[in-house]
Amino acid sequence: DLRMSRGLGDVYKRQGSRRTWINNVHMQRGGCRELVSGATNGVVELWDIRMNEPVGMFTDENVQQQNGQRRTTTMTTTQVHEHAPIIATGTKQVKIWTTSGDLLSSFKNQHNTGGVAGTLAVTGIRSTLSSSSAFLSSMAFHPHRMMLAAANSHDTGISIYKCEDRNSEFY
Fold it and tell me: Which pLDDT does position 131 carry in this prediction?
């Protein structure tokens, strides 16, 4: 389109280094070229949209031990903080990372006993769904504060976490 400035009408296709389903992409507000993608196999890639290859990458291994066996679980959600160099990934737990791939924290999301599993249990129908083993379905960072909201699939509750610097208490 000649009415648009050069570059605004262009369409780009980026292919991650590994072929798998992408569960989230995020372009930084105020940034011109930064893009982060998260895939179901746990790969998080940081892109400069002018480049064909990612400028950074790390992997959330997502390995669980069950009955003495190691199983890889699917990363279901990824979020990027708008103003801090922080990325959250979610499987059956929440992991907080720096944009360079350093793991800062890992914890299970709190769950509500309501939802589909709770409703089925109340009606007398035995359910195989367990909120404690439910995957995260969605996460969102507060745009200005270090807070994260998270929800499990098949759950009616939303948990909100406040990030704190535990080292600051010692000064």
Answer: 44
Greatest CA separation found in the chain? 64
CA separation for the pair 72, 45 (Å, rounded): 19
pLDDT at 99: 92
C-beta of residue 150 within 8 angstroms of C-beta of residue 136:
yes
Q: What is the DSSP letter of 168?
A: G
pLDDT value at 12 more than 60: no
Give the model's pLDDT for residue 103. Answer: 93
From the list 40, 35, 37, the residue with the least C-alpha distance to 51 is 35
The one-letter amino acid code at 86 reads I
8 Å CB contact between 46 and 31: no
Instruction: Indicate the pTM of the whole model.
Output: 0.73
- Residue 91's SS3 state is coil
Q: Which helix (H) or strand (E) holds 116?
A: helix 115-122
